[in-house]
Every structure is written in structure tokens, then in C-alpha cells.
Amino acid sequence: MTHVYDVVVIGAGFAGVTAARDLSVDEHSVLLLEARDRIGGRTYLGEAFGRRLDLGGTYVHWTQPHVWRELRRHGIPLAVPLDIDRVYWLAEGAVHSGTRTEYGAAVAPLAARFFADARARFPLPFAIEAVDAGKVEAQTVGDRLDSLGLSPYERDVLDGALATMVHSYDEQGLAQLLFWAATNFGDWNAFFEAAGFWPIEGGTGRLLDAVMGESEAELRLSTPVRAVEVDDSGVVVTTRAGERVRARAAVLAVPLNTLGDIELTPGIAGPASGMVAAGHPMRTAKLWARLRGELEPFYAFAPVGGNGINAARLEHHHEGDSLVVCFASDAAALDARDRGAVQAALRTFLPDVEVVDTAFHDWVGDEFSQGTWVHHRPGNLTGAVPLLREPHGRLHFAGGDIASLVVGGIEGAMETGASTARTVAAALADGTH
């Protein structure tokens, strides 16, 4: 048995780094264990095309209090996106194009019908534990689409507008989409801006390094955890290498789809156990494509299954070329390494486009993520997720996957890291841990 700590934090994404920072500056001894050879979790500021690009989670917003507080404290601005007024959308087998206003006019009445009851279902989105979401918690996203009686064109337009957030209409719960809209005044456009528009100047790594730079926690990289055992006197964390570390408490801040790979004693009980065993269904892909020439900035949308790339946006002009961020609803349907395949998918919208190079990280194949951002299965958002946010004796959970507001985002990760740190600190102070 090695040194005894007050807290062991497992996972150095934004949730784990935030929890470790807050606990350590509160003068608790903290060990932060990370399976990868880097911090950041499902955010990853990598090198591509001769510049740094976010290959994972990217976008934040000034309406997100935890993120915004840290950005302001550290003097880190948001990057201003390119002004885009050209949109292409695939519907009923044909590509349509227009201004943002024209595309918005096509999507707005359909989105209004889809999200009409978002605020009624979640009137107090900040208190989801007290919400009775009713029958929508048993429904899938596909159930809602089927219920609207849309024409083929209308269905493809709405499907394409949602496709960035959808991998499987049959597995993803309707409640989470309604909840996301409810947290943004019931307005899907407001949610979409907050969730997918404003990057951090210098990339997510800039904010992550600033938070980590304040931490007094001991960091160990390339140290995956095999087991966590909780007893009346403390917690024993066993790494895959066989090292055993004792602490008064532990924070498990790893993605939902990897929780089942860590042996917990005692195990998770009740509905949360079923959620962990099933995982979440998001198997999407984010990739960057370098296109020859400085093209007119554009958006492109296609329904799930209608094209290898379901959403694309020109984000940067770089060295005379254009860098486009793309999302594929099904990572298995598009080989992001294959320039020809990516080019063919983009030529659906821009027939003459030439792909010079691509860059991506395989989040689905990555054993320490096993998927992208979370979208919960029916029943879990208001059922199992709040249970996992509760302390399990000396074991606590954190992460964007179980956030109380910005589920699946950097803000949600930081919120759970901060709130879990407060809970643990209080238990350490009163002798409960």
C-alpha cells in the first residue's frame, strides 16, 4: 500500500481536473490518476495541418457559469467564428441551398413543433431531480419524429437539423433533447448556439492548463485504474499495474461508457447499475477536412443515414485553404482517414470541392472514452443519472455525462467537478470521510 491521500480523483478530464484543483487548494492531499498520457479526457487539443485544432469537445458559451467564471479569471477570450450566410441542406434526395435566414425559415416551424412541450416537461430544469417527465422519458427521439406527421421533405429538414446530436433515433431518449432546449428557454436555436458555436481562443487546452496550473494535486499519467474498493475506513484504488493506493475518499470522473471497466466494491445498485451496464449509444465522429482554396464560409446538413457527413461548417481559412469541421452520425459509416470518402461526402454539398487532408481522433475506438458526448437512453435522464450524482459512501461520481444542467458538455463536466469537490470537502471536514 502506497501513501495515504485525502482524496484520489480518477480521470483528468475537465471534471477530474476541476475537482482535484478545488480539493487541493482547500489544503487536502489529492492524487489525480489519468489513464491517458495527457489530461483533457474527451477534449483534445491536437496538431493538424500545421496548427493546433480541437479534435474533441470544443464549444462553450458565456451563459455557462462555471466555464465563463474560469475564462474571465484567467483572461482567456472566446474565438469569434467566421460569419457564415450560406447553407446547404440535403432533403428528399436533393441538395437545397440558401441564406441562413432562408434555412432558418425552413427549420423553425418544424423545430417549434418538435420542442413545443420542452418547458412544460422541464419547467425547473435546474431541479431535474424533482421533475416528473412523464411519458416522454419512455420515448425515443424517433418516436417524436414519427408522431409529427411530417412530409418526406419536412422530415429530412428536421432530421438534418438534429443530426449533429443524433447517432440512433431508436436508442436516444427524447427527454434529453427536450431538456437541452428547456435549459435554453425552450429554444433549440439558443441551445445549438450554446452547445456548438463558440470555441475558446487558443483551444480547450488553454483553459485546461490554466485550471491545472492552480492545482496542488499530484498528477500521474498513463495510470489506468482496475478497481476501487470502499470500506468503513476508506477507499483502496488499485491500478492496472497492481499499485494500491489508500485514501479517505475517491472521485470517479470517467466517461459513462468506461465505468463498467472499473471493478467497484460494493457495486453500483439499482437503476444506475443498469445504465452503467448498457452505456450510452453515441457512436459519432468529429473530423476536420482541409479543403483546397479559400472557400465561401458555409454550413451543410444531411439527415442521419442520408450522407456520410451529417453536418459541416467552415471554421478557418488557413494558408490559402479552408478548414471544415465535420460530424458523422455513425462513425462506422465513414472512414475519416480516407480522403476520398470524406471528399465524396462533402461533394454532396459542394460538387467541386477537393479534400487535401483530414484529421480526427477515434473516440469510439478509444478504450478510455468508448463513444463521444453522452445522450442518455429513455428513462435514464431523470431516473438513473440523479442517483449516480449522489454519494456512494466514500465514492463520488463526476463528469459531463451525469451533469445536472449542461449534460455532455465542458460546462457540465466543470459543474460536477466543482459540486463533487464541495461535497467531498464537507465530508472530510465533518469526519464522515
Q: If you had to describe this structure to a student in words, what would you say it looks like?
A:
The two termini are 19 Å apart. This protein has 433 residues and is an alpha/beta fold. 30% of the residues lie in helices and 22% in strands. β3 (45-48) and β4 (51-54) form a beta hairpin. The model has no long low-confidence stretch (mean pLDDT 96). The strands form four sheets. Strands 1, 2, 9, 10, 11, 12, 13 and 19 form an eight-stranded mixed sheet that branches. The chain has a seven-stranded mixed sheet with strand order 7-6-15-16-17-14-18. 51% of the residues are buried.
CATH class of the largest domain: Alpha Beta
Number of domains: 2
**CATH structural architecture of the largest domain:** Alpha-Beta Complex
Indicate the mean pLDDT. 96
Task: Calculate Rg over CA atoms.
Answer: 22 Å
Query: What is the number of E strands?
Result: 19
Task: Report a brief summary of the structure.
With 433 residues, the protein is α/β, with parallel strands linked by helices.
Set down the secondary structure blueprint.
Layout: E1 4-10, H1 14-25, E2 30-33, E3 45-48, E4 51-54, E5 59-60, H2 65-73, E6 87-91, E7 94-98, H3 100-114, H4 118-121, H5 141-147, H6 152-162, H7 174-182, H8 188-196, E8 198-199, H9 204-213, E9 218-220, E10 225-231, E11 234-239, E12 244-252, H10 256-259, E13 263-265, H11 271-278, E14 285-291, E15 299-301, E16 311-318, E17 321-328, H12 339-346, E18 355-360, H13 384-389, E19 395-397, H14 410-429
Parallel strand pairs: 1-2, 1-12, 2-9, 6-15, 10-13, 12-19
Antiparallel strand pairs: 3-4, 5-8, 6-7, 10-11, 11-12, 14-17, 14-18, 15-16, 16-17
Helix pairs in contact: 1-14, 3-6
